[in-house]
Specification:
alpha/beta; 732 residues; five-stranded mixed sheet; globular; 24 helices; 18% strand; 26 strands
Length: 732
């Protein structure tokens, strides 16, 4: 087989040729890797005829289609690439833009007057690509551009049928709250919601605990509360608990519903009687007192009562057409097919878990149910309407409570309020992939190439989206995802923001070392972000840790995305970066959910933990980590001393961790130039165990560890109030 065909096809499908690894060495992707990824994309690379046909189709679509599927502009000049054949060149181009608000702009121009961007021969035809410049007064929005060639006898060109493309126009930059635009610097705390303890929750942090947290920190001047992803997981399999492996990123995790705060709870005598039962009370106390979140126990308890509340809601409200019933119907109507299909998915998943004992997820269902638009799934929904509606009801309750928490935060004067987290992908067996199956390549997973902490690379078990399909669908899936997340938050963190430019794809069955980068339409995706950010008044933070390509490094400030800075990673010339050396447009934190807690880091307990989990490839590597840690502690103390932040203890790196040390490091960061500083609740409380140990699955109870103190007790702690006062003063 002609290998040049493989190389050309790979390039057209976005697969890169090479990259620079963490040592700075140029690594070329093998032909076999490219073939495996093309197979994952659904390409036939075994038969030369099929390969040539696919290559021809893509080249014609790229170079011979009159208009692209999507064009994007963010402030300034608005230009769209138009492809002309030799016969069409010199003729008049007539264009019209149908604006999102219903208005129109139109005009005409000679193709010869459009600047040329490229020319060449495609499939035997001469093509010139020209740039159509549109008026600068187009408003921000999702518009429809229509263009065609007018009759031109002189040029010998006949009139053509109009071609159309989605034209996305955004403000120049993402939204920024007024206090930050005016030069202010905000601070807040970051929590994993499930870890919160309270005397009122049911064994997992919930939306009522979030309200308590807001009431605690807002009066101290906190501007935001950072949260883990609250994406929908798998109600039929609660133990699948990673917030970064969502069933659907469009919807919410219903385990966070605070059951006693549901309006139907006070009306439902059966639910109140259930709670008064001794066995129920015993189960509830056990779940609250457990050191780890018992997801299955929590789900069993909550779903038992929520089912009663739904039954009461149907009898009391839906049957009578009350105002509350109308609110629910409005929510369902606004959710459209996407909500209906997600609710249908959860009902089907529960049904097959109960009747067949199948593993959770659509890949374990009978074949005829795997098609979201198939007759079997539709028949199930018709035969089980209440089971499907129950899951729509749960999404409504979660939506109400999360919106209520954000409203409370803003009411109490928090400029941002809730700072959410958007995961980089979805679980291959979940609702999101079932509903939008064509967009996801289930024959591959995303991950990361080898680096010093993972010499064998990483595979995350999350299927990538096909950039070609995304563009063919005019980015509508991405638009909905961003919009459905931003509507709840004043700021949104994009996990692994480099995914807007490229993702490390690994074919299923291959080692992560045999992956390759696949590229995405960066400008178009950033334009969507800027537009939705402005419309939802939502600041955007891009998690840009690790190797950041130059294209992404430049694009973030251009589009107003905030950087994500971690103090322990911020080095400059062999020392820790001084506060005044931090960039302005960033969120800074001492640690993250993927790192050891500050106490564990200082005392080296994370090294012991990783040794016990056999995560070091050799004793030599572990020894190097220990030596680097000793040096880091010395450098941190030196950095604090330079700033006049000398904690009473530890006087030397050998001293144990103290609350004074944690506070000094938080003050160090609070003095930085960054607009946003986040304090991890684990570091405020001196927690030891991390919530997540990357590289582990069942070896460590990831996403289950709770904090050690009830929320009710935090509000009365004078030491934390004093620390908040110092942080607030440092941020002024």
């Amino acid at each position: 087989m002609d290998t040049t065909l493989i190389e050309r096809l790979a390039r057209l499908r976005g697969i890169g040729d090479a990259y620079h690894d963490y040592r700075g060495e140029l690594k070329h992707f093998s032909l076999e890797t490219k073939k495996n990824l093309l197979r994952a994309m659904g390409c036939n690379v075994e038969e030369p005829a099929a390969l040539a046909l696919e290559l021809s189709r893509l080249e014609v679509a790229r170079w011979c289609r009159f208009l692209p599927a999507v064009a994007a502009a963010s402030g300034g000049r608005i230009g769209v690439d138009v492809n002309f054949t030799a016969r069409e060149f010199g003729s008049t181009l007539m264009w019209s833009v149908r604006l999102q608000d219903g208005g129109r702009r139109s005009g005409m121009i000679s193709s010869a007057d459009c600047p040329e961007a490229w020319r060449g021969e495609v499939e035997g035809s001469w093509i010139t690509r020209r740039r159509l410049e549109l008026p600068l007064d187009l408003p921000a929005g999702y518009h429809e551009l229509e263009a065609r060639i007018a009759v031109s006898a002189a040029a010998g060109a006949a009139a053509t049928s109009p071609d159309r493309c989605l034209l996305i126009v955004s403000p120049p930059r993402c939204f920024e709250p007024a206090p930050i635009s005016a030069g202010g610097r905000l601070w807040g705390i970051a929590v994993q919601l499930y870890t919160l303890r309270s005397r009122g929750n049911w064994g997992i942090g919930d939306f009522n605990d979030l309200r308590s947290l807001i009431r605690w920190v807002a009066p101290h001047g906190a501007g935001f509360i950072g949260l883990n992803p609250l994406h929908a997981l798998a109600p039929a399999d609660p133990d699948r608990s990673s917030p970064y492996s969502a069933s659907s990123r469009h919807f919410l995790n219903v385990l966070y519903i605070a059951v006693p705060a549901v309006p139907e709870f006070q009306e439902c005598a059966a639910a109140r009687a259930w709670l008064a039962d001794a066995s129920f009370t015993q189960r509830l106390h056990a779940l609250r007192g457990a050191e780890l979140v018992d997801y299955r126990g929590v789900a069993d308890l909550k779903f038992e009562v929520l089912a009663l509340l739904y039954g009461d809601f149907r009898d009391r409200h839906l049957s009578a057409g009350t105002a509350r019933a109308r609110e629910f119907r409005d929510f369902v109507a606004a959710g459209g097919d996407l909500l209906q299909r997600h609710a249908r998915f959860d009902a089907l998943d529960r049904y097959f878990r109960a009747t067949l004992g199948a593993a959770s997820g659509w890949l374990s269902w009978p074949e005829e149910y795997r098609d979201v638009q198939g007759r079997a799934a539709a028949r199930f929904a018709a035969e089980h309407p209440e089971e499907v509606e129950f899951y729509a009801y749960l999404q409504w309750l979660a939506h109400e409570q999360l919106c209520g928490a954000q409203a409370l935060a803003r009411e109490l004067g928090m400029p941002i309020g809730l700072y959410g987290d958007y995961a980089v992908g979805a679980n291959p067996t979940g609702s999101e992939t079932w509903v939008d199956r064509d967009s996801y390549c289930l024959g591959a997973e995303i991950g990361a190439p080898p680096d010093p902490l993972a010499l064998k690379g990483q595979g995350w078990g999350i299927p990538p989206q096909d950039p070609s399909v995304m563009q063919a669908e005019r980015l509508q899936g991405f638009v909905r995802l961003i919009r459905n997340n931003m509507r709840y938050y004043g700021a949104l963190r994009l996990d692994h923001v480099m995914s807007l430019f490229r993702l490390w794809w690994v074919a299923c069955g291959s080692s992560p070392t045999e992956g390759a980068y696949v590229h995405y339409p960066l400008q178009q995706l950033l334009t969507v972000l800027a537009l939705e950010s402005a419309r939802n008044s939502c600041l955007v933070v891009g998690e840009d840790l690790g190797v950041v390509p130059d294209e992404m490094r430049q694009a973030m400030p251009d589009y107003g995305l905030y950087h994500y800075k971690v103090l322990l990673f911020e080095r400059l010339e062999g020392r820790f970066r001084r506060p005044d050396e931090y960039v302005r447009h960033a969120l800074a934190t001492v640690t993250t959910h993927d790192m050891p807690t500050l106490r564990s880091y200082w005392e080296g307990r994370d090294i012991e933990l990783r040794r016990g989990l056999n995560l070091y490839p050799s004793a030599a590597v572990e020894g190097e980590v220990i030596r680097e840690r000793e040096q880091d502690r010395e450098l941190l103390l030196a950095a604090l001393k330079e700033q006049g932040l000398n904690p009473a203890q530890p006087a030397t790196p050998a001293e144990p961790f103290t609350a004074e040390l944690a506070h000094a490091l938080h003050l160090y960061l609070a003095r930085s130039a960054t607009a946003l500083v986040a304090l991890q609740i684990e570091d405020l409380l001196g927690e030891i165990l991390p919530v997540n140990v990357p590289g582990t699955d069942r070896e460590y109870p990831n996403w289950r560890r709770k904090v050690s103190v009830d929320i009710e007790d935090l509000a009365g702690r004078a030491d934390l109030a004093a620390q908040f006062a110092d942080i607030r003063a440092a941020r002024r």
